[in-house]
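Journal club prep, notes for RB
We'll compare a predicted complex against what the paper describes. Inputs for the heme C case:
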Amino acid sequence: MFLILQQKMRTIITLISVLFFVSCQNSEKPTYEKASKNQVKKLQSHPGKKLMETNCYVCHNPAGSHDNRIAPPMIAVKKHYKSSKVTKEEFKKGIQDWIINPSKENSKMPGAIKKFGIMPKTPFPKKTIDLIADYLFDNEIEKPEWFDAHEKEEHGQGKEKEMNDNQAGLIENLPYDERGLKYALSTKSELGKNLMGKIQKEGTLAALKFCNIKAHPLTDSMSIVHKATIKRVSDKPRNPKNVSNNIENGYINIFKEDARLLKESKPIVVESLDNVEVYYPIKTNNMCLQCHGKPGEEIKSSTLTQIHKLYPQDLAFGYSENQVRGIWSVTFNK
Ligand code: HEC
Ligand code: HEC
């Protein structure tokens, strides 16, 4: 708590003295009145921040302990890409180059590749990456609690802290679209962490079995923590239990059109008297294709045999990168 306060204070001080490029969480503080309202609003809502949280934090999250990660936190990435000599344009280009071609030759973090395996290639829109890099370059971003200690003594035993329930209080104050998205992304992060780890350690086949047994209960336990219903549904499901209904199919089609136009999708929010429903697309990257791509090409025949055994009615294949594989369908009380 004290740390957050301290960070806030620092933010406020920077804002007053520089009045530039600062992103703050809380506009209610009277101190902000020194900046014009418009300015604060503009600074607060740098679009790159949200894009980063939605697209990159699944893996580059500042929360999560040092040992239990699937990728370095974003601040570590930033440190490797932004040395004192690098201009903003060079920084942005560096990030773009990586996204277009994540490869050993292109890496500034070979240690991270060794530790986590290479980042899955995902065709993010150029504009999205441009905004994220712009935000990253100019702003202080959250760092995990263990980060400074780790920096000091490379492999020091920094205090480790998982995302905890304290955050639930904050989540409930968010606007509905962000709240729904947070629920979905924390589930995704949990699923993604387990899946990527399993593939790296034991291979696709073991991961497949893990998905089969674990995907359902895992989604359920997250739902309980958040007192929300979090479903992952698809118009072409692998597990028939995950089939989307007619209403959800309508939203899937909207998201597919976004993907076709390489447009960043916004969550769809539907309010009723007591409930809020939030829908958000689940898109493919190249990691997904070993289980959801073309049979005989990306899906190896041993994997395919196993899929057919577990899911005789499987429809979830034939995808390529950046397609809408399904949606998060999140419902919670107002
Ligand atoms: C599915 C998980 C995942 C997602 C999502 C993801 N990354 Fe990564 N990323 C990784 C992993 C793992 C590494 C470390 C290994 C490596 O360097 O390839 C990494 C490394 C990086 C690096 C350093 C690469 C190097 O080796 O020099 C950059 C830059 C990066 N990510 C940017 C991004 C941005 C920007 C986003 C969001 C638009 C993003 N990543 C989303 C997993 C992910
Ligand atoms: C190791 C194999 C494997 C990988 C890799 C994989 N999946 Fe799946 N996926 C499965 C299995 C198995 C199921 C069925 C889970 C169940 O029984 O609920 C599934 C189910 C899903 C579902 C729920 C709807 C349905 O079809 O039943 C979505 C959505 C989904 N996967 C998206 C993805 C995305 C996006 C990626 C990449 C980021 C991915 N998957 C990577 C194996 C995989």
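Talking point for the session: The CA atoms of residues 213 and 233 lie 17 Å apart.
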